[in-house]
Design goal:
It is built from 3 helices and 6 strands; from the N terminus they run ααββαββββ. With 136 residues, it is α+β, with helices and mostly antiparallel strands.
Length: 136
Amino acid sequence: MDQTEQLHGLMPLCGTLGMRVVRFGPDAIELEMDWTPDRCTSNGLLHGGALMALADSAGGACAFTNLPEGATGTSTIESKTNFLGAVRDGAVRAVARPLHIGSTTIVVETEVRDGEGHLVMKTTQTQIVLKPRSSG
């Protein structure tokens, strides 16, 4: 199974939106998604929600690859986004890198760029580290 198939299995929305893995490692996650008319808002602009899904998926995968020992996963608890440009065609690429890797939270910064390399969005998110609940 390739990395894109694994991503779609772990996060089915990534498959629904046609996201592809470009790079997958603890230092950086890169995901791509194409502009398509069915992912747009008015005037043929790629919907901000689709861009947010791309950034959140890349950030979540980045946090997951940096989990401390004994952790079972992560969940986004805070996300701050600045939209800096519009996407009217082509593909967008999200690059997520860890800013802080702790035992209870992981902070990730994600840049989304269009096919020409223009920065269209920047997201900083905090992921809570999930650990098994103790019984009793």
